[in-house]
What we know:
Elements: H1 3-16, H2 18-25, H3 33-49, H4 59-72, E1 77-81, E2 87-93, E3 102-107, E4 127-128, E5 131-133, H5 141-157, E6 165-170, H6 178-186, E7 196-199, E8 203-206, E9 212-216, E10 223-224, E11 227-232, E12 236-237, H7 246-259, H8 268-278, H9 284-291, H10 293-296, H11 300-308, H12 310-315, E13 319-326, E14 333-334, E15 337-346, H13 352-363, E16 369-372, H14 387-399, E17 405-406, H15 416-421, E18 425-428, E19 433-434, H16 436-439, E20 448-450, H17 451-468
Parallel strand pairs: 3-6, 3-7, 7-18, 8-19, 9-17
Antiparallel strand pairs: 1-2, 2-6, 4-5, 5-20, 8-9, 10-15, 11-15, 11-16, 12-14, 13-15
The chain binds zinc ion (ZN).
Amino acid sequence: xxxxxxxxxxxxxxxxxxxxxxxxxxxxxxxxxxxxxxxxxxxxxxxxxxxxxxxxxxxxxxxxxxxxxxxxxxxxxxxxxxxxxxxxxxxxxxxxxxxxxxxxxxxxxxxxxxxxxxxxxxxxxxxxxxxxxxxxxxxxxxxxxxxxxxxxxxxxxxxxxxxxxxxxxxxxxxxxxxxxxxxxxxxxxxxxxxxxxxxxxxxxxxxxxxxxxxxxxxxxxxxxxxxxxxxxxxxxxxxxxxxxxxxxxxxxxxxxxxxxxxxxxxxxxxxxxxxxxxxxxxxxxxxxxxxxxxxxxxxxxxxxxxxxxxxxxxxxxxxxxxxxxxxxxxxxxxxxxxxxxxxxxxxxxxxxxxxxxxxxxxxxxxxxxxxxxxxxxxxxxxxxxxxxxxxxxxxxxxxxxxxxxxxxxxxxxxxxxxxxxxxxxxxxxxxxxxxxxxxxxxxxxxxxxxxxxxxxxxxxxxxxxxxxxx
Length: 470
Ligand SMILES: [Zn+2]
């Protein structure tokens, strides 16, 4: 939708409900999102200028700034450090308690940036060419500001709420999620009874025609299960080859792993996603495959189609990427030990122990050790329906009627894992509509978000939160 159409639609919607609302509350049905969008851009610039690069993080500085902004609106916030300098912010807008709380989650830390590679300084927070520039503009200070402005707008308007709205900004998402892990363990009482949570992990894909291809809501994500494999042998001089060379043993194991194809498994979120894509697919054969992926995946031609797409492939199976390799430091020395690390990502419903058993069978060498580098975890999935999904549907229907809403599985990993693990339905939702090119600036160069996207995001999140907390 163009901006003009969006504004016109907004006016039309506002006019439609004008009489009743003004009589009831003496204010328009919705806030002035244009004004809120400009305000969001100013706040985002300030937030970006507070350097919270992880490592070391220094999130307490960011948390203090958020606390000041909230204090100006009369919203009290507390800061809890998960370790020195690693601040986690918590604030609550009370409802009448008839429904369970909703959490708006973000992380304060950002990844490093190479200044010289950017067109506008990554720590400038400047608005140029219609966008706010800087590290974190998308991942995820921009979303944090949209959540903040949503809470602020509800507070300013004194909207009566059926459920508490809780704002949480965690430390250390980018290098190990220690903030979320600590917060959900040590401050669990603050989240007691929370029903839903909105976090990063969604993606609204903008097509070349300016329409949104789909609104993607994250209901699940694969779980990293990183492994090290190690082989030992007798060391010696490279001029005398030995049959028990550790490096060769690891090379043989890696050859088998690289050739191995993990089984294809259709999980309910992936099946739902493909069925949603079927409603928009123009090619008749593909439409048939998407509409019934369970049957299609028994057809080798369809399997080739699905697995040739790297994203579809990754959501249909456990995956293994061979990444780190260690052997000898010298060409003429046979090492006593050689190892490799595997970036394994498990689908929802998979047990790590079963995967390791399968991997042992594939390696077929009992002298090769397998050591997990991360704790054993299983992916969890939030309900595909329910009041929050319904509120998202209605917000999309108001803002971009007819647009597709679907639930693509995240192949990466977010803090949502820790919140799902304590029973909160976590949903990855982006407030922005991004082209593939925009999305590539996340963790890359020239990360930025347009002021129009901030305006859109505040309206999108406000409509969702206001509806689900009505
Ligand atoms: Zn992030």
